[in-house]
Amino acid sequence: MRLDRIQLRLPNGFCAELTSLGATLMGLYVPGVSHSLVLGLPEPEDYAGPHPFIGSTVGRYANRIAHGRFSLDGRDYVLPTNNARHHLHGGPEGFHAQIWRTLSQSDHEVVFAHTSPHGHAGYPGRLDARATYRLEEPFRLVIEFEARSDRPTPVSLTHHAYFNLAGAGDVRDHELTLSATHYTPTDEELIPTGERAHVAGTVLDFREPAVIADRVGAEGLDHNLVLPPDACVHARLLHRESGVGLTIRTSEPAMQIYTGQHLDDPAAGAHFPAYAGLCLEPQQYPDAPNQPAFPSPVLRPGDVYRSRTVYEASANAPAN
């Protein structure tokens, strides 16, 4: 198994490390900060074992599809279940587990490609996907996804970084701001009910900056937020003690917030303690193939799926 290990670097020292296995971000480094801003495993080969999608490109469909089933244009499709009774993040052999081709590489950009055959993991259509990672001055990481299919198929690609701006410790000491005014309620198995509800009065109301620990107890968060399309910034994360900050802007209509409460699960490799990283995953709505009230995630022949997310880091942010 030949795995590419790729380093992108700007003249100012902003740096990203990636591997072709899962088109995965292994590390993200800002000048003057000694640690990576994202969790990562030491070697590309480590991603071949069990891990909870650490830094991976997730697909063909991010988040959950209820009972591993959906119907499209009068046909029923069955997907592997890997999250109790449900299909999660493309299943056990999803895009995170595939070796992507490195199409092109420069000092500041790499383009990965992957072809998912018709019927793989139960999905219809041959899907040709690309993932582009690009560094821009001063400290921006741009991730762009593109996909085409020869048959109608649901598509939702996301980047599954676990952020810890302190480099280690409990991420609940970070301060979080989110633009979302609504979220999609779920049942006890985290499958959406099909509703949209306002965040007011819930633990998901981060419209004003708040320390995560002040809102979230031992149960953690694993919820989908509905993003306002006109927001200048969709998420803002800050670790005041270190002065490191991060903003996120995305073209996607939704974002999953996950506080990493299951990172210590032995079944997923137990690479990190619980709450060691925070995921903010731009995506289509979860279970949208089964939810007619949600925006359609179906990609049809002749159309192009495109997604763009900008992560902008800062150091020495105000600590008061």
Summarize the structure.
The chain is an all-beta fold.
How many strand segments?
A: 25
Identify the overall geometry.
Answer: globular
Which structural class should the secondary elements be placed in?
Answer: mainly beta
| Mean of residue pLDDT values | 97
Beta-strand percentage range: 35-45%
Oligomeric composition of the shown chains: single chain
The side-by-side strand order for the widest beta sheet comes to 9-10-11-12-25-21-20-15-18
Major sheet details: 9 strands, antiparallel
Helix content: under 10%
Low-confidence stretches: none
Order of helices and strands: EEEEEEEEEEEEEEEEEEHEEEEEEE
- Count up the helices: 1
> What top-tier CATH class fits best?
Mainly Beta
What's the N-to-C terminus distance?
49 Å
Supply Rg. 18 Å
Tell me the number of structural domains: 1
Which CATH architecture?
Distorted Sandwich
SSE arrangement:
Layout: E1 5-9, E2 15-19, E3 24-29, E4 56-58, E5 64-65, E6 69-72, E7 75-78, E8 87-88, E9 101-105, E10 109-116, E11 127-136, E12 140-149, E13 153-154, E14 158-160, E15 175-178, E16 182-183, E17 197-198, E18 210-211, H1 212-215, E19 222-226, E20 235-239, E21 244-250, E22 254-258, E23 279-283, E24 298-299, E25 305-314
Antiparallel strand pairs: 1-2, 2-3, 4-14, 5-8, 6-7, 9-10, 10-11, 11-12, 12-25, 13-24, 15-18, 15-20, 16-17, 16-19, 19-22, 20-21, 21-25, 22-23
What does this structure look like?
This protein is an all-beta fold. It has one domain (5-314): Beta-galactosidase, Chain A, domain 5 (Distorted Sandwich). Helix content is 1%, strand content 37%. It is built from one helix and 25 strands. The protein has one helix at residues 212-215; strands spanning 5-9, 15-19, 24-29, 56-58, 64-65, 69-72, 75-78, 87-88, 101-105, 109-116, 127-136, 140-149, 153-154, 158-160, 175-178, 182-183, 197-198, 210-211, 222-226, 235-239, 244-250, 254-258, 279-283, 298-299, 305-314. The strands form seven sheets. Strands 9-10-11-12-25-21-20-15-18 form a nine-stranded antiparallel sheet. The model has no long low-confidence stretch (mean pLDDT 97).
